[in-house]
Design a protein that fits this description.
482 residues; alpha+beta; eight-stranded antiparallel β-sheet; 16 helices; 19 strands; 34% helix; 20% strand
Length: 482
């Protein structure tokens, strides 16, 4: 470790105690990546704070030393957003796991950033409420990470993303001050800027979340189709009829194969695609809409439909979908989880183009996606022991994002940009757009120490004149500074 970092580590030990500061190279390797393992960097120092005051003190020490820092929750992110800096400090909030307050009359709860997503629901379910955002990793992902990435989940079609369920955040700013960012009120919506900023504007230390009442009834079906195109036709018919399900999820044959190998979900054999449709709400409304959904699935060509009779059968239907990302490890040594968004009407064309890309390149792609809102999660499979395989997979992954942009979509729906997709930002935004975003970032973090190197394709300097840059960036070729 460099002398300056060694001095900083010693000061951090004085603040937190030696047990909460990690500098051992072997233990540091635990934190070298998030859920997207093809980006790795071992941090110089890892700290495990237990309070907002400790995080504020850590940030002040880093700022005084000019050392970059990155916040990390459970490490389940899929864009390299919590990728640490080899010359910096990784601030891990996973020990801050207290639910501080449950206010049922106010329909809210106050939690620390390390609280696991599903634990919020478990805590309030006895009162008839739950926490609506439900990423597939909700059994292990943290609310603080959900705030950073504005995570969604299977039920975001009806209930929205994390941003729609956050009422306020306590935040440590890049100068080490603890501030409250409330929702609404006069002035600028700083909370709206902060949620989804991928940890580049500060560190969340306390979150007030909105609780949602458990619906009167829930109905879930699984429809099996001979092809993904037939399943897509069913999705179009359902949305076109004005039905807004809580969730519409689709898996293709390759992702079904992986799920069967991993969790034995026992989906209908021979299916080219399965569609999971869930409706919730008042019983009469759900019953009427559910009959319509079942009819439209059959008309679109479903050869088998299963309807969950109870919560146990509902959980079994969801088991394969919820495990899909991890399950792909059963059929491929390595894979890239991608995340792009397209208009629902473009699903058939984009899926056909992905098939063509896969066939042309020889790179297998498993498709799992939120069909209702066009949020694709193609899983690009490769063997990392084969020379050149990762590069070919990266090329296919990038081509899929290009398809999303070409069809009027986005390079990310819920996984964030992080380090993985920052180079694609110039394909969606102009230089003026990116300069404006960077000016906002500089307003929060003028020294550029808070999760640097994420989101933006090229570091911009606070004080640099905005506009189209002529010539090289002054820090180009000096990646060690970022």
């Amino acid at each position: 470790m460099e002398a300056g970092l060694a001095v900083l580590a010693a000061r951090l030990e004085g603040l937190l105690g030696a047990a909460r500061v990690i500098t051992d190279p072997v233990r540091l390797r635990t934190y070298e990546c998030d859920g997207l393992t093809n980006h790795r960097s071992t941090p110089a120092v890892v700290v495990l704070p237990g309070t907002a005051e400790q995080i504020a003190a850590i940030v002040r020490e880093c700022a005084a030393s000019g050392v970059p820092y990155v916040a990390r929750g459970s490490g389940t992110g899929l864009s390299g957003g919590a990728l640490p800096r080899a010359d910096g400090v990784l601030i891990v909030t996973s020990r801050m796991r207290r639910i501080l307050e449950i206010d049922i009359p106010g329909q809210r709860a106050v939690v620390e950033p390390g609280v696991i997503n599903l634990d919020v629901t478990r805590a309030v379910r006895p009162y008839g409420y739950y926490f609506a955002p439900d990423p597939s990793s909700q059994q292990i992902c943290s609310v603080g990470g959900n705030v950073a990435e504005n995570s969604g989940g299977a039920h975001c079609l009806k209930y929205g993303f994390t941003a729609h369920h956050v009422l306020s955040c306590e935040v440590v700013t890049p100068d080490g001050e603890i501030v409250e960012l409330p929702a609404g009120g006069p002035g600028y919506d700083l909370l709206g800027v902060f949620v989804g900023a991928e940890g580049t504007l500060g560190i969340t230390t306390k979150i007030t979340v909105r609780l949602t009442r458990v619906p009167e009834t829930v109905q879930t079906l699984l429809a099996a189709f001979g092809s993904i195109e037939a399943g897509g036709a069913a999705v179009s018919a359902i949305i076109g009829a004005g039905v807004v399900p809580a969730a519409i999820e689709m898996m293709d044959a390759l992702s079904i194969e992986a799920a069967e190998a991993a969790v034995r979900c026992e989906y209908p054999p021979g299916a080219g695609a399965v569609l999971i449709v869930e409706l919730d709400g008042p019983e009469p409304e759900v019953a009427a809409q559910f009959a319509e959904v079942e009819r439209m699935c059959r008309e679109a060509g479903a050869f088998e439909i299963r309807i969950a009779a109870d919560d146990e059968e509902r959980a079994l239907i969801w088991k394969g979908r919820k495990s899909a990302f991890a399950a792909v490890g059963r059929i491929s040594p390595a894979y890239i989880v991608q995340d792009g968004v397209i208009p629902r009407t473009s699903l058939p064309q984009v899926l056909a183009s992905i098939d063509a890309l896969s066939a042309e390149s020889g790179v297998r792609v498993a498709n799992v996606f939120h069909a209702g809102d066009g949020n694709l999660h193609p899983l690009v499979l490769f063997d990392d022991a084969e020379p050149g395989a990762e590069e070919r997979a990266e090329a296919v992954s990038g081509a899929i994002l290009d398809l999303c942009i070409e069809h009027g979509g986005s390079i990310t729906g819920e996984h964030g940009v992080g380090v993985d997709k920052s180079r694609y930002m110039t394909r969606m935004f102009t230089d003026a757009d990116l300069d404006t975003m960077q000016m906002v970032r500089c307003g929060f973090d003028p020294d550029g120490l808070c999760n640097p190197g994420k989101v933006f394709p090229t570091p911009r300097l606070c004080g640099e004149v905005p506009g189209v840059r002529r010539g090289a960036h002054p820090y180009e070729g000096k990646a060690d500074l970022f």
